[in-house]
Amino acid sequence: MPIEGVHTIPGRGTAVSGRVERGVVKVGQAVEIVGLDNDGAEVVVTGTQAFRKNIPMARASMNVGLLLRDLKRGDVRRGQVLNSIAGASFSYALVQAVAMSDWGSAAAGGTAALIAR
Fold it and tell me: Staple 18 to which of 4, 7, 76, 115, CB 3.0 to 4.6 Å?
């Protein structure tokens, strides 16, 4: 889940908001904060909310707020990503570069594009 906002809730702690990209996030689940200058801090989700209502789990495509245990506002910022520790996996890709002289459509006025997901 990409983090879109960081909020401090008095008496509760720090919450992050964003859109769950895939999978589910449950209360009590351990997640990892990755990106920017962070080495992958592990935190636990202590609450999930959608539209100011407590929900037991957040599913893919939901805009949610997640309350995180033992996290200070300065430890996380917009642009970082929450990743499930249990489902963490690595993917590798092979990218081949083609010289412009060998690229047929580029010679005909087209442009080369690389799309990775």
Answer: 4
Contact 48, 65 (CB under 8 A): yes
What was the pLDDT predicted at 36? 76
Q: Which two tokens stand for residue 23?
A: 């999978």
Amino acid at position 108, single letter? A
Report the percent of the chain where pLDDT is more than 70. 71
Name 108's Cβ contacts closer than 8 Å, sequence gap at least 6.
none
E strands of the chain, at which residues?
3-9, 13-19, 24-26, 30-35, 38-50, 53-54, 57-59, 63-68, 81-84
Give, rounded to a whole angstrom, the gap between the first and last alpha carbons of the chain: 15
Domains and CATH numbers, the chain: 3-84 (2.40.30.10)
What separation in angstroms does the CA of 66 have from each of 42, 73, 77? 14, 13, 14
